[in-house]
Amino acid sequence: MATTTDTVRPVASKRKVPRRPGDLAFSGTALAAGITILVVLAAVAIFLAIESIPAFTGEPTENPILKGESFWAYVAPLVFGTIWASMLALLMAAPLAIGIALFISHYAPTRIASFLGYIIDLLAAVPSVVFGLWGGVTFAGMVQPFYAWLNEYFSWIPLFSGQVSATGRTILTAAMVLAIMVLPIMTAICREVFLQTPKLHEEAALALGATRWEMIRMAVLPFARGGMVSSAMLALGRALGETMAVTMVLSVSGVITFELLTATNPTTIPANIALSFPEAYGDGVSVLIATGLVLFVLTFAVNALARWIVSRRSEFSGAN
């Protein structure tokens, strides 16, 4: 009986393929760009932290801005005003942005959808100072009679109680202007996310007898939930950091109040920095930089929360 021996085929040695100069240049540029982002972010954080030290360690009685009160007592109304105005803007802008995006992506004819998309993109390019001028000079006077009507018939609601501002320059007006400013961002992102919905999902829902709205509710909105959250958080970050529009619209008082129609309004951190920085000196500058550090941490926390929410929805996917 003949025996056979297994022959071992020699394994070919792996040759290192030389990389082309173009590949090396592209990968190096991409790596440098990524590192630059981290370096800039770290540099900003280090600058804010170092320059803020006198605000935390100095004597409040000697600070020209604190004027005897602690830093946290000074910054608390500013944090409240920043979050309050941004949340009001987000609550007003989110439903409208989602509705416009759905109309453009699933209801409007092609020509109208293209035109509306162009208008939305153009609106995003308008400078914030233009929104601020329009809001403070024109829009505030337009909504003041509406505020008086709200106060007359709905003053039993704490939000609409108090003495109505005669100028209309209230926290609600500033929130409306912020909502208009963040509307293009949310609409553009939601529109692109809605258009990425797998066609098989939409066609399957329609084939089962669903109406167009039922198809959107069962197929489009669940698929786009992560993108909608991302757009909302991006818009919230824009609203948190907005300076000129709030500065030019809001009649600042620097208090903590939930009343929306009165002349006594909380202010935001960016608006306070813009108004106070030209006259600040010494440790007063450190206090303003410290409030900027608080805003930096707040914005970073919002973005981290959005990233966490989106990552939890990443398992929902489909093929076109």
UniProtKB/TrEMBL annotation:
Cited InterPro entries: MetI-like, MetI-like_sf, Phosphate_PstC, Phosphate_Transport_Permease
Region spans: Disordered: 1-20
Predominant place of localization: membrane
Membrane topology note: Multi-pass membrane protein
Localization per Swiss-Prot or TrEMBL: Cell membrane
Transmembrane feature ranges: 24-50, 70-103, 115-134, 171-195, 243-264, 284-306
Keywords recorded for this protein, A-Z: Cell membrane, Membrane, Phosphate transport, Transmembrane, Transmembrane helix, Transport
Start and end residues of each ABC transmembrane type-1 domain: 79-306
Keyword check for Mitochondrion: no
Entry function: Part of the binding-protein-dependent transport system for phosphate; probably responsible for the translocation of the substrate across the membrane.
Family: Belongs to the binding-protein-dependent transport system permease family. CysTW subfamily.
PANTHER family linked to this entry: PHOSPHATE TRANSPORT SYSTEM PERMEASE PROTEIN PST (PTHR30425), PHOSPHATE TRANSPORT SYSTEM PERMEASE PROTEIN PSTC (PTHR30425:SF1)
Protein name as it appears in the record: Phosphate transport system permease protein
Organism (species): Microbacterium marmarense
